[in-house]
Amino acid sequence: MRFGIVQFTSDRGITPAVAAKAAEEQGFASFFVPEHTHIPIKREAFHPGTGTAELPDDRYTRTLDPWVTLGTIAAVTSRIELSTAVALPTESDPITLAKTIATLDHLSGGRVTLGAGFGWNTDELTDHGVPGNKRRTVLREYIEAMRALWTQEEASYSGDFVSFGPSWAWPKPVQAHVPLLIGAGGTDKTFKWIAASADGWITTPTESDVFASTALLMKHWEEAGREGAPRVVALDFKPDAEKLAAWAEAGVTDVLYGMPDKPEAEVLAYLERLAGKLEPLGLVR
Prior knowledge:
Blueprint: E1 2-6, H1 16-25, E2 30-33, H2 66-76, E3 81-84, H3 94-108, E4 112-116, H4 122-127, H5 135-151, E5 155-158, E6 163-167, E7 180-183, H6 188-197, E8 200-202, H7 210-223, E9 231-236, H8 241-250, E10 254-258, H9 264-278
Parallel strand pairs: 1-2, 1-10, 2-3, 3-4, 4-7, 7-8, 8-9, 9-10
Antiparallel strand pairs: 5-6
């Protein structure tokens, strides 16, 4: 089991580069950041955590661009995985985003993982021209189009939401396959999508039963004829050795911990305390 950090980035408090550098020094394996381009003030979409239009945290309106953020992290680290929890690829031009991700993977030595979401905020998606009822289809096409640009010498793609003729596009990612994780509720619909088009699952903060959901994911994975096992990245709030051992037995491969929205010195002290708690459980410092 690998342990990582997720930072709810904003334009205040500790900078991601400082936080990720400290996380790497403390032995954490990965660093995840989120994405929202904007939050429409008038919304019909309810937040999955509150069940209303109310946001649980004002950082939803203040998140930093994930790819610029991960670029600053790449510049001051050497091994930590650079990922998103979650990015919203359908809110970007897929050709441009493919270039951004390939460049980051190239410059970081192959450390990028794309953690993507379908987008709960359909009002936000609408402003980007993405129909809420087609967001899963749009994401699938965008991922397929980006993989074409990442892997083909003369790339092309034809879909309902993205199309381009034979094209050259370099750099290619260092990784032969940029991993794709999906952060969404643990449902049959989500897991069928993952089994068909992704490499693993990121739980949501509201996930109530990691064991049952992971078992359901494994069922769909096997039924789809996928080899090996999916990566399962679970969000946790407080380390508990017995629970983590049970999660590992159930198929959880990674556990992420968030950081407090506090001044830099307090965050750095928190990371050190967290690493100390996790060291007996397998964190390599």
